[in-house]
Write a structure and sequence with these properties.
242 residues; globular; 79% helix; mainly alpha
Amino acid sequence: SIYGSFFVITAIAGFAPTSLGLVGRVISGQQAFPPFIVHFHAASFSLWLLLLLAQATLMYIKRPELHKRLGLVSFVLAPCVLISMFGIEVFYVNHVLAPADTSPEEITEYKRNISDILLIHGVSYLFFPSFYLWAILVRQKDSESHKRLMLLATQVLMIPALGRLIGFSQVLPDLGFNTIDARHFYMLLLIVPAVVHDSARNGMPHRTYLIGLALIGIWVVAAHYLWGSPWWVETAPKLFGV
């Protein structure tokens, strides 16, 4: 339950300033009411974090049967999280980042922004569904792996909140890293307490953490080298039909 609370606090700290600012602009008439996908995205992510916290708490207070019944909600909620991630990205690319004109400079900037976004959020696209499905497959026979996989699945969803803490509110320093490396550094830092707890209790981290973090590490290294590369800047927009 401690780690679930940690993720919830991180999300609130990251999104509260921008969310309150958005509400204020809408009320004052400075900005139009956001489209449905924005609300769907916010609701899906918020409910996922609350579900994680509730599930961890139920196991802590020894209510495994209720934990299992409530877990069925994830069969609907996890697809909603995934759909909302892609939906908000398509909306952002087509409406927020869309260039004002077709000048070469605007188009180049547009392509660069798309390529950056795909790398920043790519870890969520790839590993949230992977770790979630893995967790569901082993939930009956390997509860220790199951709970760690759910933490890993949620860890990779923290990228947007961490980005706001680094860039918007500057609560977290970038430590001299570039945009992608700073987000990945803090994302990996989030899971350190859980890994340290495993090591202190069992002498080494659970194999699920070792495998999961190794897979994430491959992405982190690849994203570092792809960031800003001419090939990626030209290739990534094609995924959106640009």
